[in-house]
Amino acid sequence: MAQLAVPDSIAGASLADLLRPRLTAATAPAAGATGAPAASASPSSVVWVDGGDEVLVHLDSLATQVVGSTALVSLDLETDQTGRTPLVVAFAMSADGTAGLVAATDQLPRGNGVLAARWGAAVREAAWSALLALANDHASERSLAPRGLAIANGQLQLEAGALPALQGQARSLGTAAAAPPALPAAGTQPGNG
Fold this sequence. Notes:
By secondary structure, the protein is an alpha+beta fold. The protein has one domain. Helices cover 21% and strands 34% of the residues. The longest helix is centred in the middle third of the chain and has 29 residues, at 113-141.
């Protein structure tokens, strides 16, 4: 069997290496970043542009840590007004993965108030997108579906499983759907013939 790129359990500090390429993908030009990455290597930084505001995002500064049941994701941002400073997003997760692909987080990351107020939501969404992409890649390597994120024994646990069965009856593509009920003719009242 081939070596899997995404293990079931990931130590806090090692999580950054697995998130970095996914964070780079999450900050692609379609998401508001400028400067497309080179084909052979991920960029060390990108510029996010929104509403005339710009911030330099230092992707190479990505650091992660697991504390209790929380995964911390730190990313340095830089503007002319604030200089370079980290924003830290905390994702609290269940201990057993039964919550699914869910985490609780603060509205804004920790760090410089000016940067957090302006760019915190974007940092939080990029970090969460990278975590979900990691869960998806983990499951895809196993030909399964992502089922849960958890933190246990100081490590992020990725859980994958079979796709859930559809409830109820599904129609095949070749089966015609029933026609909707006929509307009453113009000028007639329903029930009056």
